[in-house]
Amino acid sequence: MELCLYHPEFGYYAAERERFGKSGDFYTASDIHAVYGRLMARQFDEMWRALGSPPSLRVIELGPGRGLFAQDVLAFAREKFPAFFEAMQYVMVERSPSLCRRLMERFAAGLERGTVAVRHSLKDAESTGHAIAFANEFFDALPVDVLGEHGQLHIAASGNRFTETWREPAAAVLDYARRFALVPAGEQRVEICLPLEGIICELDSAFQRGFVIAVDYGYTRAELQAGAPSDTLRAFRSHTLRANVVDSPGEQDITADVNFTAVAELARGAGIHAMPLLRQSQFLMGIGEANQFADIFESCVLPQEHAKRALQLKHFITPEGLGEAFRVLVMFRGVPPKEAARLSGLKFAR
After folding, report:
1. Pick the CATH number of 8-142+193-234+252-349 from 3.40.50.1820, 3.40.50.300, 3.40.1790.10, 3.40.50.12710
2. How far are the Cα atoms of 12, 61, 254 from residue 137, in angstroms, in the given order?
3. pTM for this model (two decimals)
4. How far, in Å, CA of 32 to CA of 315, rounded?
5. pLDDT tens digit string along 54-66?
6. Are 251 and 12 in contact, with CB atoms under 8 Å apart?
């Protein structure tokens, strides 16, 4: 998975071809409409105020892709939340060299002013006092190992084909499985995300006080133990689910559902505390309810525009769209728990 996605020359994210939107392999929330970035900008402003409105704060986006979300957040914050905008530096952490080049072109003016920065890793993002880290469909693209009843899955080459082979599990894989109750039963397969701990350590070093928002597909330990699917490794190409994840290496996206229990427990070890896990529908409804989503519709002139915008919003918050499929985990450090719990996005967790 590491090679298929991140090989510097042949990896999926190294290629220059389009991966996002209609002409790519999958849609992100910001490909659908700026409504997503606008709602998140409102939540970011509220988080900044919960931190005491510090004179400087970094918004750190992990895996920004083409930068559409960043563009929407910056534009809406500039218009609606000028005090927050003046305090903010927007840092995009992108591993792909080709995407970094595109980001630097798109945000050339912000880079020159110092209001925007592009970094290849969290390690390159200098530590700061106050920050909001945002990760939308970032954790599901971290490479995973697979455990099954016959051991740890490896991929072997046989002529022009790839085949599965099983070996004795590595000690680190077994340790992770035991820590997070991911021991396979019978023919069950479970995914082990070893890079997750390193990412949490880097987040720990990135800020002293602030928030982390993780938005992704995923499950909890309790859901897994209750029978939720554990074999979630899958590939996408041209908006189609592919059965064979090692077919066409470097030419299709590969993802695995996120173990939110592991994320929360590793973060707690770093002093970053998790709020209850939400559905995306709950989170966005909480943010928008304060003003009945007025920000989203105020630029609409014609009834047709209003109807189109309503359909786009519906896609984010209904079970038929992304509202139930995506989960939202909000974490915090250096903020009183009662203050964090008052965030609009957490209203339906109370």
Report:
1. 3.40.50.12710
2. 16, 11, 12
3. 0.91
4. 9
5. 999 999 999 999 8
6. yes
